[in-house]
């Protein structure tokens, strides 16, 4: 069955979260194959991904200004778009900290965190793929629960990573730098949970 014209926003949500997933995968690639001499170049590519996501959000805003009928309230559409956009922004923030703090070597804990970030964004994408059918879909609620579980896993990884950091690193600058990096990585998963909470709230409001 063809999608109704006014439901194009559902497709836009998926297109936006695709950039979040791209950013997450690229962050994982940067961390797993880390080269401090290439981080500046990686930042350029990461920013390109983030910028494309921003453009998609701006296009949605322009479309909303012209549309008379929307599938859900305009405020709900913008709140969801902002929440998705924030996820991509937060991922770029992690890459920025690797550059700003002149990180030379990657800690194993960061690789585990990167894996969870990828899983969070993928679960968010699967939820948004189902959003057009939010009144009937069971998958969307399963994915929202999955995001919550992944966020809790990220919290535990953050706690253990910071504990291990301060037990094993004597250099104060290195410890402080990685403490911030781990904080920003955990913040990505928080933003995914925030986005899932917005989705759940919109579903409840429109059901």
What does this structure look like?
The chain is mostly helical. The chain has one domain (5-206): Methane Monooxygenase Hydroxylase, Chain G, domain 1, CATH 1.20.58.220. Helices cover 81% and strands 0% of the residues. Helix 1 packs parallel to helix 3. The longest helix has 35 residues, at 172-206. It is globular.
Topology summary:
Layout: H1 8-32, H2 39-66, H3 74-100, H4 108-129, H5 139-168, H6 172-206
Helix pairs in contact: 1-2, 1-3, 1-4, 2-3, 3-6, 4-5, 4-6, 5-6
Mean pLDDT: 94
Q: Helical proportion?
A: over 70%
Structural class: mainly alpha
CATH C-level label: Mainly Alpha
Q: Major beta sheet, specifics?
A: none
Task: Give the ordered list of helices and strands.
Answer: HHHHHH
From the spread of the alpha carbons, the general shape counts as globular
- What is the end-to-end distance? 22 Å
* Weakly predicted, low-confidence segments: none
CATH homologous superfamily identity: Phosphate transport system protein phou homolog 2, domain 2
CATH architecture: Up-down Bundle
**What is the total domain count?**
1
At the fold tier of CATH, the topology name is: Methane Monooxygenase Hydroxylase, Chain G, domain 1
Radius of gyration: 18 Å
Number of continuous helical runs:
6
What's the count of strands?
0
